Amino acid sequence: MFTAKILLLGSGELGKEFAISAKRYGCQVIACDSYAHAPAMQVADESEVFSMLDADSLRQAIERHRPDFIVPEIEAIRTEVLQEFEDKGVTVVPSARAASLTMNRDRIRDVAAQELGLRTSKYRYAESLDEARGAVEHTGLPCVIKPVMSSSGKGQSTVRTSGELERAWEHAVANMRGDRRKIIVEEFIPFEYEITLLTVRSRDGVSFCAPIGHRQERGDYQESWQPTPMTGKLLADAQEMARKVVDNLGGYGIFGVEFFVTRDEVIFSELSPRPHDTGLVTLLSQNLSEFDLHVRAVLGLPIPSIRLNGPTASAVILADRDAERFSIKGLKEALSLSAGESEVEVRLFGKPMTRPCRRMGVALASGSTVEEARERAREAAARIRITYEA
Ligand SMILES: Nc1ncnc2c1ncn2[C@@H]1O[C@H](COP(=O)(O)OP(=O)(O)OP(=O)(O)O)[C@@H](O)[C@H]1O
Ligand SMILES: NCC(=O)N[C@@H]1O[C@H](COP(=O)([O-])[O-])[C@@H](O)[C@H]1O
Ligand SMILES: [Mg+2]
Fold this sequence. Notes:
alpha+beta, 28% strand, binds glycinamide ribonucleotide
């Protein structure tokens, strides 16, 4: 009775929206993550709780469910097991190689910079504080330190003086996901702005969403907006680089390709072979969200022209402390900001626990300009209040 059976590896807010889109197209979704009641588990047909870095647990889950598609939603997965099942004919989205290359920052960076010759920041890897000191000789200061396996800025620091390096190394080691004590040391790029270019690779070819501008703090996205003004040449350069890297990875799905933009140059930063957090804005900004597009590309369904509804923005709703008992109020006040043509939406993720700076929801708003949309989204997010019970 189902279109297809999907095993979703990672069940956060991005997986939740993907699962909703997949259910709309008649799929069966089994949502997996390392903790119970994760956002996507609340909307899936079934759920599994296990460490996706544990090969045996992952293998057993795949064998138990025998999915048509395995859809990784995070990087921290034992990707060797995905390759095993792809070799047996199970489709890994977009491919087992893509999941393996993007699991760790270093491998996709080397493909982009060395194999494809894309412009990136200067960089070196380090597996000790001494090696990190040597890497800084190459990148110069300021530089950015990141664990090779991490996302949402976890373990990331900007180092401006050599005296800050040791603390940055320790922060990276303490916050890395997975089992590799390895960091990337990158030249700091004083970009004018940065974008996510959502790039859809399907049987119809490669298509692009309008560039999404975003603002980051602590290496984690705080706001995003669409469209973001770019000169024709810079946008064409970004699209050319994105096409090169997604064609190299192959397979079908949506890719979040991140670029820094200086006055006259586009610099490749990184890529996620899946919907991107800054792309949450597409829930309101486009005829098809990044999640709809991912499902369509995965299932081999048509990808029509991607239409932008108008200037739209997103603003995150963050917790500020650890808590297991809390409530979220203010929906009515936030949604009452809709005015005339301008819409406001809120998505609450349903995460069972809060942590400092954990993303618990997102506010979305349209406007006659991007600035107006951003202001309205920030105001809507500010009206959502998390109250913590002792
Ligand atoms: N080399 C750099 N120069 C300047 N800023 C940087 C650099 N690298 C990262 N940043 C800043 O930190 C943000 C997060 O970096 P990055 O995307 O590499 O981290 P991440 O943990 O992979 O985040 P996510 O997976 O959520 O995209 C970037 O969007 C940018 O604002
Ligand atoms: N930049 C990557 C990103 O945004 N990933 C999203 O955050 C979730 C983890 O959130 P959590 O740490 O709050 O559980 C992931 O499952 C994914 O949905
Ligand atoms: Mg990023």
